[in-house]
Design goal:
The complex is a heterodimer of chains A (114) and B (114).
Chain A (H helix, E strand, L loop, with lengths): L2 E4 L4 E4 L4 E3 L1 E4 L5 E7 L5 E7 L5 E4 L2 E4 L9 E3 L8 E8 L8 E3 L3 E6 L1
Chain B lengths: L3 E4 L2 E4 L5 E7 L5 E7 L5 E9 L2 E4 L6 E3 L9 E3 L8 E8 L9 E2 L3 E5 L1
Parallel strand pairs in B: 2-11
Antiparallel strand pairs in B: 1-3, 3-8, 4-5, 4-9, 5-6, 7-8, 9-10, 9-11
The chains are: A mainly beta (114), B mainly beta (114).
Chain lengths: 114, 114
């Protein structure tokens, strides 16, 4: 079945450091891929998404590219801020599992200190 | 615009008790779903609904019931709570069934079963 694997956290960085959070997936066909962010005490928010191979999703300085050849969707940011401290979830939907069901990775906690 | 609201925010139950977690959205979204979030496991889909009167099971449906009598509301019922149901529960909605559209999450309900 479909699955998502993320790098384990926590990831601890200094402000202005470069961020990479690895995400790989297993799925048949061409799923849609997402990154969600959960700030402390809040629900999840969509950060970015990509719906086909080689698409790049971007938002708030974060980027991720849908790589079919490596089945990956790594999240990157060039210069993190303290306000980026949160838990980040990689997720996919469809096609074999249905486009109405999200499959999440375990989440990666990011802590950014001044 | 309230978005997705959930009540209560926190609940303590004894084993065998029943309760209903409430979820409401004011965006006229057809698709609604319930997830549970457990440490190290990301979010897992419990039940979902593609419209009023239509519900289906997700990945972990056992011990939970749902109904969808209106577009706005999607309550989750625990008929006989068990300690294994201690978790954080999130409700989500999106405009349509195909999840390339953004899914909006509520703030969550933290449930402790003793």
């Amino acid at each position: 079945g479909n699955s998502v694997t993320q790098m384990e956290g926590p990831v601890t960085l200094s402000e202005e450091a470069f961020l990479t959070i690895n995400c790989t997936y297993t799925a048949t066909g061409y799923p849609s891929l997402f990154w969600y962010v959960q700030y402390p005490g809040e629900g999840l928010q969509l950060l970015l998404k990509a719906t086909k191979a080689d698409d790049k999703g971007s938002n708030k300085g974060f980027e991720a590219t849908y790589r079919k050849e490596t089945t990956s969707f790594h999240l990157e940011k060039g210069s993190v801020q303290v306000s980026d401290s949160a838990v980040y979830f990689c997720a996919l939907s469809g096609p074999s599992g249905g486009y109405n069901k999200l499959i999440f990775g375990a989440g990666t906690r990011l802590a950014v200190h001044p | 615009n309230a978005g997705v609201t959930q009540t209560p925010k926190f609940q303590v139950l004894k084993t065998g008790q029943s309760m209903t977690l409430q979820c409401a959205q004011d965006m006229n979204h057809e698709y609604m779903s319930w997830y549970r979030q457990d440490p190290g496991m990301g979010l897992r889909l419990i039940h979902y609904s593609v419209g009023a009167g239509i519900t289906d099971q997700g990945e972990v449906p056992n011990g939970y019931n749902v109904s969808r009598s209106t577009t706005e509301d999607f309550p989750l019922r625990l008929l006989s709570a068990a300690p294994s149901q201690t978790s954080v529960y999130f409700c989500a909605s999106s405009p349509g069934e195909v999840l390339q559209e953004t899914q909006y999450f509520g703030p969550g309900t933290r449930l402790l079963v003793l």
